[in-house]
Protein: Helix-turn-helix transcriptional regulator
Amino acid sequence: MQELAAAPFPGETEWVYWQRKEAFLLAEDTYARWVMFAVESGRFRYRIQDEEGTAAAGDVVVCPPGARFEREVVEPLSFAFVAFSLRADDPVPLPQGRVRIGDTARLQQNLERLKPAPPHDAAAQHAYGAHYAADIWLQCMQECNRRKETSAAPADAAMDAAAAWLREHVDARSAVSEAAARCGLTPVQFTRRFQRVFGMPPQPFMLSLRMAEARKLLVSTDWTLDRIALACGYENGFSLSRSFVRLTGIRPSSYRALHRL
Structure:
């Protein structure tokens, strides 16, 4: 399989990381270069040309040069804004609009490395930040290719409803099993059907939602780790901490210290 053999590589890359942004300064804009909004947490509505929707944690919204980009924050938004150039003669189809990233752990690692310390300090940007931004673009390209390979898969309203239910029940410890039961499916049937629609099993999908909620609560509240764990579907703070370190490479207490203003 020759995936991405001719994939265009971003050049002249710039980025800014925004923490819990409550509103965009401009409700719409048009950019001279390609831009990506890679969401860590929160939600925003968008419209790019004929496509509109809502982006949330694990989504990357891609806007091509010259396209009108309308946007509105729905829930305080933490995201990386990346602007970059591509060669005008790149021959392959390129992602546009919302891209759901399957490997959310990899996306989260890239986003962590794009964060300056202190926030918004351009001089503190990671020396290899352009490479991490390029990897987010590579993920978008890979998802675009995967969509083509599975484009014959039919739309599935039941799975869309199940994904929406999972987003609303991050605190449910057996959320995936409950979602399967709501659909009248066995866990195996539900997993296969969910993956056919979203390109990933429901378990990592739920894990990414829980991690996004944990990061949000660590920054926005003074709750103990045990209380945050219960709100994110974990039995206790130890279980949450173990998953958090495995996926982000940093302890919850250290994450809170780094991101509290």
